[in-house]
Design brief:
Layout lengths: L1 H12 L12 E6 L4 H12 L2 H6 L4 E6 H6 L2 H5 L5 E3 L7 H11 L3 E3 L20 E5 L1 E2 L10 H5 L3 E2 L2 H13 L4 E5 L7 E2 L2 E2 H9 L6 E5 L8 H9 L6 E3 L7 H7 L5 H14 L4 E8 L6 H14 L3 E6 L17 H24 L4
Parallel strand pairs: 1-2, 2-3, 3-4, 5-8, 8-11, 12-13, 13-14
Antiparallel strand pairs: 6-7, 9-10
Helix pairs in contact: 9-10, 13-14
Bound molecules: 5'-deoxyadenosine.
Length: about 350
């Protein structure tokens, strides 16, 4: 999502790019706020441009993305060499804001979440690249208790079908063979009576396109029609990224994930019954507040049971404004570290086992 947004930032400005910040007229740092570490990294990246700005006062330094959205105007006070704070919904406004900053010699903040034209700018496409992202959805309507996304990316907006087809066709005309449809909960996409399964079919009709992927799916929005579409459309790759987050029902409830372990396992069964060689990958959070040794073992057992091809796993990170940040029963850092290491070791073993099975 952020890579795509960075490419949109680049395209919207239509500047020549440089790897040398000393030569730049504009530097925009795109940022992620999903965990505290990303958030801190973002701010220290902005710090690196202080000296360059001191040498070149005409340089415009901006921060974009979710950290910009989260802290807003405060960043201008905290970081004196910063000229612009731009939320993730405001990318289409960037060129205008840059010219205003140049003209008026004033700093600028745009963090409104009420911007409807969020899809206006397409992503920059590198010549010769055969893969591309296509955004089909912005924001998120789910209420997972740990997650900052709804606060910084706003409510779910689904992109119009004809725009998705148009952008994909443009990319295919430029030589793209594989697209990845992206959205926070991509399979909840719906627009004007069309559902996600229809979207897969209609995108697959584009001649010259060879592969379709999509990410990230929300378990509760996996439907029969969607599974059928995956099975029937040969262009749709047999892979689903389906974050489970935890294998413990009490933790899932506290995370407000709206499904149980059994419900998730049933979806996995339905996927595998239809598409036997499907790859399933997932996201896991360890050390969520209240996670007992038993809860954690439930997660390890789920990993063994599903045999994910791989997973992305994270230690719980309290995010400002989210309900989970207020939960008491915090898991000590040392325990969370150990759990993360155990879980990652188990996944490495499973991944190796699965890969060894493919020899020959
Ligand atoms: N702490 C740790 N991990 C988180 N994720 C989202 N919010 C948090 C948080 N507060 C993880 C989830 C999600 C992935 C993109 O990031 O696993 O699926």
């Amino acid at each position: 999502m952020n890579e795509y947004d960075s490419d949109r930032i680049r395209n919207s400005l239509n500047y020549e790019t440089t790897q040398d910040p000393e030569k730049a007229d504009v530097v925009i740092i795109n940022t992620c706020a999903i965990r505290q570490k990303a958030d801190q990294k973002a701010l220290s990246s902005v710090g690196k441009f202080k000296h360059i700005k001191a040498k070149n006062p005409n340089l415009i330094v901006g921060i974009a993305g979710c950290v910009a959205q989260l802290y807003g105007e405060k960043l201008l006070h905290k970081i004196p060499h910063l000229d612009l704070v731009l939320g993730p919904r405001a990318i289409p406004k960037l060129p205008k804001l840059i010219s205003q900053i140049k003209q008026d010699k004033r700093k600028s903040v745009e963090t409104s979440l009420d911007i409807e034209e969020v899809f206006e700018v397409e992503a920059y496409h590198e010549e010769g690249k055969v893969t591309a992202f296509v955004s089909v959805q912005q924001g998120c309507n789910k209420k997972c208790s740990y997650c900052i996304v709804p606060y910084v990316r706003g409510k779910e907006i689904n992109r119009q079908l004809n725009e998705i087809i148009k952008e994909t066709t443009n990319l295919v005309n430029k030589g793209v063979k594989e697209i990845t449809l992206i959205g926070q909960t991509v399979n909840s996409w719906k627009e004007n009576g069309y559902k996600f399964s229809d979207l897969l079919k209609l995108v697959a009709d584009i001649e010259g396109l060879e592969r379709i992927r999509y990410t990230t799916s929300y378990p509760r929005d996996v439907t029969r029609k969607m599974i059928d579409a995956m099975r029937e459309i040969s262009k749709v790759c047999n892979h689903i990224h389906l974050p489970v987050q935890s294998g413990s029902n009490s933790i899932l409830a506290s995370m407000k994930r709206t499904y149980t372990r059994e419900w998730y396992l049933d979806i996995v069964k339905r996927l595998r019954d239809s598409i036997p060689d499907i790859s399933i990958t997932t996201d896991i959070i360890v050390g969520f507040p209240g996670e007992s040794e038993k809860d954690f073992n439930d997660t390890l057992e789920l990993l063994e049971e599903v045999e994910f091809d791989t997973n992305f796993s994270f230690k719980f990170s309290p995010r400002p404004g989210t309900p989970a940040a207020e939960l008491k029963d915090v898991v000590p850092e040392t325990i969370a570290n150990k759990r993360l290491a155990r879980l990652q070791k188990l996944q490495r073993d499973i991944t190796l086992r699965k890969n060894l099975n493919k020899i020959g």
